[in-house]
Amino acid sequence: MRKNAELLPGTLDMLILKAVSLKPLHGYGVLQRIRQISGDALDIPQGSLYPALYRLEHQDLIAAEWGQSDNNRKAKYYTLTIAGRRRLREETAGWNRLASAIAAALNTTSEEI
Amino acid sequence: MLKRFRSLFRLLRSRQAFEDGMSDELRFHLEELAADLMRSGVPLPEARRRARIELGGMNSIKGECRQSRGLHIVDECLRELRYAARLLRKSPWFTVTALLTLALCLGANLTIFAVIDAVLLRPLPFPNDGRLVTIFNSYPKAGVQRDGSSLTNYYERRGQIPAFSSLAIYRYGTALVGDAGATQREQINWVSPDFFATLERGPVLGRVFAEGETTYKSDGVAILSDTFWRRQLAANPRVVGSQIRVDGVSKTIVGVLPADFRFLSSEAQLYLPLSSGPEQRVPIQRHSGGNSTQMIARLKSGATIEQAQLQLDAQNARLELDDPQAKMMADAGFRSLVVPLHADHVASIRPTLLLLQAGVSALLLIGVVNLANLLLVRANARAKESAVRRALGASAGHILSEILVETSVLTLFGGLLGLIVAAAGIRLISLFGADRLPLGSQIEFDARLALAAVLSALLLGLVLAAPIAWFNSRGSLLLAIQSESRGGTASRSVQRVRHGFIVAQIALAFVLLAGAGLLGLSLDHASRVSPGFNLGHILTGQISLPSQSYPTSSIALAFAERLTEHISSYPGVLAVGLVNNMPFSGRAPKSSATAKGYVRKPGESPRGIYSYGVAGDYFNAMGFFLRAGRFLRAADSRRTERVCVIDEDFARYYWPNQSALGHQLFQGSEEGPDSEAFTVVGVVGRVQQAGLTAEEAQGAVYYPYFFRPDNDMFVVIRSRQPPESLATALRQFVRQINPDLPVSDIRSMDIRISDSLAVRRSPVLLAAIFSVIALLLTAIGTYGVLSYAVAQRRREIGLRMALGAQPQQIRRQFLSLAFRLLACGTVIGVVGASLAGRAMQTVLFHVPGVSLPTLAGTALVIGTVSLLACLLPSHRAARISPLEALNN
Fold first, then answer.
1. Average pLDDT for residues B248-271, to the nearest whole number?
2. What is the C-alpha to C-alpha distance for residues B722 and B848, in angstroms, rounded to an integer?
3. pLDDT tens digits, B518-576
4. Which of B70, B128, B661, B756 is 20 to 30 A from B838, comparing alpha carbons?
5. Residue ranges in B738-757 assigned as alpha helix (H)
6. Measured between beta carbons, which residues in chain B are less than 8 angstroms from residue A69?
7. pLDDT confidence tier of residue B22, bands split at 50, 70 and 90
8. With an 8 Å Cβ cutoff, are A51 and B64 in contact?
9. B489, pLDDT greater than 60
């Protein structure tokens, strides 16, 4: 079995929103956090992280602010906006519905038809 | 959506900050990543290398980030703007020509648009101005097209015409305003109390006039204009209730009008009640309007002009039943007409304005065609470049947007320059006397004009891009690349379009030039009309005697006699006279006179006659021509025997084939007692009372001033020295007799006549300017296209010459092409000019719409100019050296 699962299209935004919902993070922090909360199962192509962050900021789902990093360096921190929180809730609910439906479909045995 | 735009806008402002922030952020990422790798034991250089690999291409990430923010569109636009600017800089001659063309064409259009907007388009400054109408009496068969409305009309119609919600009457004039010793002549508008209600606008301070304030005893009230209030009373907010002297009588100020209150073209500073006695409101005064009193009304919502007209006709018919004058008025074709106020006010100038608009539109069209042609030539020259770029993957949309950006940059700059030209044009038009046009003083350079400029520039950008887009979309890439490399000629269809454009240009310029020629010819004819008297050193001025100080005709006559006596003693003065109404004074009211013993034939209409009261030596001062008998003398006013002088039209009509001397006539429309009959003692030549181009005269009678007194009078002085030198003397003489009496409108007769032609002269000047620009553009266009054709066929010509063709043959070939284009353009131009001439008929004077000399002259000018423009390129073609051409 492969170590890292492929990221499904459209799920990156959701994961970023989830990551910054826990705590304000800079870009690199988002990357680490996603790795961490997925138990290293999800690997994000780093090249697409920043365009996604900029897109979400442009849509006002996350807000950015310059701040100090742990090692005292200037870094851009992202937080979730109210609109972002709503979007995360919707996406989570939608994802759960989809996941359980697919799981149910995949677990179907021939007797159940 | 709005949010995104706002975010985009914020970013645009801090574009540099955005770029810096993005770089910082990505650098931070790299460093953090490298630090993590170092912690797991990778050495620094290797860690940095791996971090860069893991993150990926920096530039592509930045590009994607920008795209996420919607910045790529801006970037692309900027890039294309830079590209367009570079292209335009690379060919300065083309750019300058194009910008000048656009500036002149758009500038001319904007100037005329400013006039049309102010005069025809902008609504009058009253609520629902479309419902305002004016009503006037017309007696067409008596030669009187409009005669205002009478007070009787007003009192009879008020509240009686259901289609009107309100009806008012007013009269323009002047009065002496201010305390004795410091008076000034001001424009006055005497109005009925419902005047402001009809307009639905009234004073901002105080109140309107009350219904009871319309008798001579109760009319001591006044409403001020905003200008007067600020100028004379320092905008004192407590002015209501204070007193102001008008013609020596004290009036109470009851109101102040708002700053933007403007009734048509009136410059009235004061509004006073239009008062009248009961004797002025009786049926016998029904037809005494005389154009000095005018009626306005407001249509009820839902009511139409047609309904109002029907109701008015019905009322007139009812009133005529017991009107002793009814028969005569019916013979004169009497009718009261209801017409829209705004349209009626500008009716005289409308055809001229529309004509000028048509002229500038043609000019713009010439300019656009010219530019389209020049752009096509450029596109052709760049065909290979664009074909190569398309072959390398540039999308058709991309190339199209490039074209659009380029033409729009060009037209927008041209539009801005056009605005500058328009500002100058508006100044020029006001020098021509535009403020004497109806509503002309409201012509201004405003935001509407700027908006019109930008919109038309953008539209032009689109229009100009179309032919190039068409050119680029045509044919296969391969062909374009090959054809150029082989040095072949442009495809036939493109050439045909270019030639078609030249033909169109020549035809349009032809129409424009022919139209200007017709107008010029009309002006020439008009200025050749004899005014009917000997010109020379004649000074004229206007005096209005306040009726309070000059209540009777003998007092007014005494003033006139003293004044003429004073002035005649001045050195160099040859003759002095006074008259109630002078030719070229801008007024031409008609009244009636009845020849004694003359019985009108059935159906014969009564005639509108100019009636004058003259004092002093008026006839010699004006230089009238005596046909028979003698002129009136100053003493005729003092004699008990009543005498008069008539003009030749009157004499010929009433006493044909016999001498009019000794015959008698009466003032007014009926015969009176013999004691009131005037004996004709002289016949004079006809004079052009209403201007050089007026042709409605039906006769004139001159009475001694005493028998036809008028408080408005004109002084006429004939002198040896230039008339202007007498102006100060005239003022002083009047002041010596009455220190409070100003003389207004002092002008020499020459100037008066010349001013009366301003309405014709300004369009001619404008049309001439437009035509010169059009000719220039046509010359540029023809030259450009022909020299391009020569340049393009260098190799072909070179080859032919190498094979033995003579230079003359080559030259002839190109000249014959020019001739063919010119011939086509001229033929279409003649047709267009004939149609345009027919449409212009109303503004022409003694010139047929299709005038052969004009057409021939136009053809000559256009032919000369375009052939001159062709000579140089043809000559160049003939001098091409075969060796050079083939080597290239």
1. 92
2. 39
3. 999 999 999 999 999 999 999 999 998 888 888 899 999 999 999 999 999 999 999 99
4. B756
5. 749-756
6. 28, 32
7. confident
8. yes
9. no
Complex-level ipTM beyond the 0.90 threshold = no
CB contact under 8 A, A47 and B28: no
Cα separation, B368 vs B346, in Å, equals 31
* B12 pLDDT tier (thresholds 50, 70, 90): low
Measure the CA–CA gap between B173 and B711, rounded to whole angstroms: 12
Q: For residue A107, give how far its alpha carbon lies from the nearest alpha carbon of chain B (Å).
A: 38
Mutate to test the interface with B, among A4, A58, A59 (most CBs of B within 10 A): A58
Per-residue pLDDT tens for B362-377?
999 999 998 998 888 8
Query: Residue B729 and residue B719: Cα distance in Å, rounded?
Result: 12
Tokens standing for B886? 């083939």
Flag if A75 and B28 touch (Cβ within 8 Å): yes
Residue with token string 């307009």: B199
Tokens coding B771: 């035509």
Q: CB contact, 8 Å: A2 with chain B? A: no
Nearest-5° angle of CA B287, CA B293, CA B296?
105
Res. B317: pLDDT tops 50: yes
First-last CA distance in chain A: 30
Query: Touching check for A7 and chain B: CB below 8 Å?
Result: no
Strands (E), B265-386: 270-273, 293-299, 335-340
Nearest to B55 among A47, A73, A76 (CB): A47
- For residues B658 and B501, the answer to whether their CB atoms sit within 8 Å is no
Interatomic CA distance for residues B221 and B255, integer angstroms: 9
Kindly tell me if the per-residue pLDDT of B295 is higher than 90. Answer: yes
Cα separation, B482 vs B383, in Å, equals: 11
For residue B62, the distance in angstroms to the closest alpha carbon of chain A comes to 8
- Local structure of residue B605 (DSSP, 8 states): P
Taking CB atoms and an 8 Å limit, are B61 and A50 in contact across chains? yes
- Mapped onto helix, strand or coil, the DSSP state of residue B399 is helix
pLDDT in tens, B723-763: 988 999 999 999 899 888 889 889 999 999 988 888 888 88
Cα distance between residue A33 and residue B665, in whole Å: 116
The residue of B11, B25, B33, B39 whose CB has the most chain A CBs within 10 angstroms, and thus the best one to mutate to test that interface, is: B25
Q: Check whether B487 has a pLDDT greater than 50.
A: no
Cα–Cα separations (whole angstroms), residue B545 to A59, B215, B265, B539: 79, 21, 25, 19
Residues of A in contact with B26 (CB under 8 A): 50
What secondary structure letter does DSSP report for B144? B
Chain B positions contacting chain A at CB under 8 Å are 3-4, 7, 21-22, 24-26, 28-29, 31-33, 35, 54-57, 60-61, 64-65, 67-70
Nearest to A58 among B55, B57, B68 (CB): B68
Residue B97: C-alpha distances to residues B100, B102, B103, B653 (Å): 5, 9, 10, 63
Out of A5-14, B113-122, B478-487, least confident range: B478-487
A-B Cβ pairs (cutoff 8 Å, strict): 60
Average pLDDT, chain B: 88
> B35 to chain A: which residues are within 8 Å by CB?
71
- Considering only A85-99, B206-220, B426-440, B850-864, which range has the smallest mean pLDDT? B426-440
CA terminus-to-terminus distance, chain B: 57
Which residue, among B18, B22, B28, would best test binding to A if mutated, counting the most A CBs under 10 Å from its CB?
B28
For residue B32, the chain A residue with the least C-alpha distance is A28
Give me the long-range contacts of B21-26 (CB less than 8 A, separation at least 24).
B21/A66, B21/A76, B22/A50, B22/B62, B22/B65, B23/B62, B24/A74, B24/A76, B25/A26, B25/A27, B25/A50, B25/A75, B25/A76, B26/A50, B26/B55, B26/B58, B26/B61, B26/B62
